[in-house]
Amino acid sequence: MAENPSPAPPPPLTEVESHGVDRIPDAERTATPFDLFRLAFGGANTFSTCVLGAFPVLFGLSFWQGLAATLVGVVAGALILCPMAVFGPVNGTNNAVSSSAHLGVHGRVVGSFLSLLTAVAFFSISVWSSGDALVGGAHRMFGLPRTTLSFAVAYAVFAGLVLVLVLVVCVYGFRFMLFINKVAVVSATLLFLLGAAAFAGDFDPSYAGAFTSSADPATQALFWPSFIGAALIVLSNPVSFGAFLGDWSRYIPADTPLRRVVGAAFLSQLATLLPFLFGLATASIIAAKAPEYVDPAAPDFVGGLLAVSPGWFFLPVCLLALIGGMSTGTTSLYGTGLDFSSVFPRLSRVQATLFVGLLSIAFIFAGRFGLNLVQSISTFATMIITCTTPWMVVMMLGFFVRRGWYDPEALQVFNRRRRGGRYWFTHGWNWRGMTAWWVSAVIGVLFTHVPGQFVGPLGELAGGVDIGLPLSLATAAVLYLALLALFPEPRAAYGPGGARLVRTVDTPVPPITGPRGAEPASLTTVEP
């Protein structure tokens, strides 16, 4: 293979991004693994992650139990997530497009749909937590009434500001988003460290939670369901980046050692222990000093945080909410709007981003004023990771059996409204990967058990313990490899090195046809 041309200098921040989900040319890949670290960490180093960090206490765990659940969730989530970073440098496109090789040219819409749900959920968490912090801070500093109207206005104004910023990012693209996150990472980290100083005197790690030795048997029986449920809520944060990593890593040169890319993704999630532990520690303070704010019937972490904060920390809380909300909004909506416009070509990139943003706002208003918001978000987050992780397993195993080889032109068939190619399989669908994904996702949902929120039809079979995610992971791995072994894929779907672990069949591949004309006949076979 010819050597990649040397990358050009990074473009200025105000240069309009010309690329959609098409392959980024080698000469324009100017990002580094450290840039990926900053984007992934910056998108999670936010006030909304603090809210997720409070869930172990809201579920009744002690500080030390909550710390264990948080560590399990972050480390497990980081291990599941980090391999998803390799597709961007290898293929120069996002992960949904890369999934064409495993789910088929049309099956790639599964990744687009999952990224849409994830963006809606986590942008909603950002708007909710940031809006509540702004209203609570204004209430404490200026006496603003905490009414339905004030919250509605705060959500609408904050979401509107974030959408404006995201639309600007849509125009100027990746480099501009990277600049925003550079500022956000430093600013939010300093504010969290300032918060640690603000609450150091009140923090007591001996907070016991609900599952003490004196608790009644019915309460003690809920410990493991609550522990696992809290760990899954934490795990949802790193897993939520699975569909987005390719949006950022595609700007990393293809010859970058993949271990550095994987390592950057892994470390970015370990770094999120900062906001997670801030949320956990402050939630334990709230539970001890203002327990009415962690009432399971109507929990209010943000209100409780402001209630126990020293007066001088109100402004930093508001700044943290604002900065973090901007960072989460740009990272979650940038890639989703980009991909959504490729699925629905009648929508421009700006229109697609605006649609996703408005859908998120509708979700936050429905959850905040029509439903139990904490239950809505935690259940939604659990459902997302239960459905997303088997998709990620299919992607990672597919990468392994293909030895990391992909055909960039065949991956872009759907985006160019064409037909055929190596990944056409059965009318554009690879039923092997699709079957492994949906069967595993359904099994995961059936066995899900989130105490007091969502219990699947088979959720009680494990004694109240949520085994949905482990089952979906194991089912996806076993079923996908079994289907590849029993129903071999065409030899042409693999590279010159052939398949790893599985066998293939010599099946003709239809030529790529469409607006650009038919592909050369040599594409129908691959040299051994």
TrEMBL record:
Q: How does it sit in the membrane?
A: Multi-pass membrane protein
Q: List the keywords (alphabetical).
A: Membrane, Transmembrane, Transmembrane helix, Transport
Claim: Transport is one of the keywords in the record:
yes
Question: Where, subcellularly, is it found?
Answer: Membrane
Primary location class: membrane
Q: Which residues form the signal peptide?
A: none
Q: Where are the transmembrane segments?
A: 39-61, 67-88, 109-129, 149-172, 179-201, 221-245, 266-289, 301-323, 352-371, 377-401, 422-447, 467-487
What's the family? Belongs to the purine-cytosine permease (2.A.39) family.
Protein name in UniProt: Cytosine permease
Q: State the organism of origin.
A: Streptomyces formicae
